[in-house]
């Protein structure tokens, strides 16, 4: 186990700066998830921690030791890639033991470490097969097995589940959570999947264009985002942003209704999560919604609709309202859960 500290870390390719003066503390034994739009620098950051990519500026420390110049092996990290990168001509056993053979361990040591990894990942019956004879989920386990045998201080995962179908993703996600509990190692994980981020992370790091927008527990980011970008990025379906005007002790929504608020007259955006709408009359600012589509998930349902302002909304309706496309219905907003943002995206906390 080890902590990882990034201090003013930057990465440039020629004149293109893709990571800019990034600071981050990753606690010993924690599970940290990087999320952010495509191209924001998640893989680059992971590869710099792994030692696969030089750090242009700043300092990387693992367990208190500066590692900028250290070889990947010396860093005590192991990386699991999205595309598995298994050797097709080797058996599962040989694939998992490969790095140990390279490191010169004895046959007995290799066999025992491979056996432990195979048991942990429940792939013992597959050891004699080649990757071509495995399912996607089994291949992914082998790729994780290759990391486990190295007994790393820090595991780095770059979208390890994104090639798997939905059902397998869910079961592998649970497997990874169990693995983290069992090994207690520091894990850093990149994903595009909201649910993976929310369920696996002790800490989520939201990145945009090479910078950290906000880092915190899943609940902190969900309940208390620092800005419009994080508010819109965390949560699925995403938060609704309704245009309004602040003045005279309220925010008047363009779509009708008003929420109590103080502050000087200004255009604002009111953020409301799908689950923070209520029956008309039960909250503040009733708004009329014309239903476009109802997505019924069994236990709950999402109403996709349009407001009189032309804005689109997604509303979670726990009740079976019997709605269909074209219907118009009013919903209220829970005023204590609404968040306010400036049109430039800053969170307005004092209104
Ligand atoms: N070798 C390279 N030379 C120049 N630019 C690069 C190189 N590798 C990556 N980049 C650029 O660096 C930026 C960050 O890339 P990176 O792969 O880290 O993004 P990412 O957040 O992992 O995206 P994705 O979610 O699509 O995997 C991108 O703009 C990319 O085009
Ligand atoms: Mg990437």
UniProtKB/TrEMBL annotation:
Native species: Devosia riboflavina
Protein name: ABC transporter domain-containing protein
Entry keyword set: ATP-binding, Cell inner membrane, Cell membrane, Membrane, Nucleotide-binding, Transport
UniProt topology in membrane: Peripheral membrane protein
Boundaries of every ABC transporter domain copy: 4-234
InterPro entries, alphabetized: AAA+_ATPase, ABC_transporter-like_ATP-bd, ABC_transporter-like_CS, ABC_transpr_MalK-like, ABC_transpr_MalK/UgpC-like, Mo/tungstate-bd_C_term_dom, NA-bd_OB-fold, OB_MalK-like
PROSITE patterns for the chain: ABC_TRANSPORTER_1, ABC_TRANSPORTER_2
GO molecular function: ABC-type maltose transporter activity; ATP binding; ATP hydrolysis activity
Top-rank taxon, per record: Bacteria
Keyword Transport: yes
Subcellular location field: Cell inner membrane
Family: Belongs to the ABC transporter superfamily.
A Pfam family reported for this protein in Swiss-Prot or TrEMBL: OB_MalK
Main localisation: membrane
Coiled coil: none
Record-linked PANTHER family: MALTODEXTRIN IMPORT ATP-BINDING PROTEIN MSMX, MALTOSE_MALTODEXTRIN IMPORT ATP-BINDING PROTEIN MALK
Gene Ontology cellular component annotations, sorted alphabetically: ATP-binding cassette (ABC) transporter complex, substrate-binding subunit-containing; maltose transport complex
């Amino acid at each position: 186990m080890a902590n990882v500290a990034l201090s003013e870390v930057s990465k440039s390719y020629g004149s293109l700066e893709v990571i800019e003066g990034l600071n981050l503390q990753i606690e010993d034994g924690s599970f940290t998830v990087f999320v952010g739009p495509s191209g924001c620098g998640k893989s680059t950051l992971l590869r710099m921690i792994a030692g696969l990519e030089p750090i242009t500026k700043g300092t990387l420390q693992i367990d208190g030791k500066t590692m900028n110049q250290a070889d990947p092996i010396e860093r005590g990290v192991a990386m699991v890639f999205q595309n598995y990168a298994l050797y097709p001509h080797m058996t599962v056993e040989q694939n998992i033991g490969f790095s140990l053979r390279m490191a010169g361990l004895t046959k007995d040591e290799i066999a025992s470490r491979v056996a432990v990894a195979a048991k942990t990942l429940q792939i013992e019956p597959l050891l004699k097969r080649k990757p071509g004879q495995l399912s996607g989920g089994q291949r992914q386990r082998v790729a994780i097995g290759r990391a486990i045998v190295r007994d790393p201080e820090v595991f780095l995962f770059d979208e390890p589940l994104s090639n798997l179908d939905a059902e397998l993703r869910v079961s592998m996600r649970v497997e990874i959570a169990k693995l983290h509990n069992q090994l207690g190692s520091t894990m850093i994980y990149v994903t595009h999947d909201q649910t993976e981020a929310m369920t696996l992370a002790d800490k989520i790091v939201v990145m945009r264009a090479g910078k950290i927008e906000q880092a915190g527990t899943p609940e902190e980011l969900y309940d208390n985002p620092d800005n419009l970008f994080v508010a819109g990025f965390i949560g699925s379906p995403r938060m609704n942003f309704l245009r309004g005007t602040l003045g005279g002790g309220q925010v008047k929504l363009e779509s009708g209704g008003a929420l109590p608020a103080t502050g000087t007259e200004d255009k604002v955006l009111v953020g409301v999560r799908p689950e923070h709408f209520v029956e008309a009359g039960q909250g503040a600012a009733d708004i009329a919604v014309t239903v476009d589509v109802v997505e019924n998930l069994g236990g709950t349902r999402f109403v996709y609709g349009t407001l009189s302002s032309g804005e689109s909304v997604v509303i979670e309706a726990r009740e079976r309202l019997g709605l269909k496309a074209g219907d118009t219905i009013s919903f209220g907003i829970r005023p204590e859960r609404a968040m306010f943002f400036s049109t430039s995206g800053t969170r307005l906390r004092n209104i």
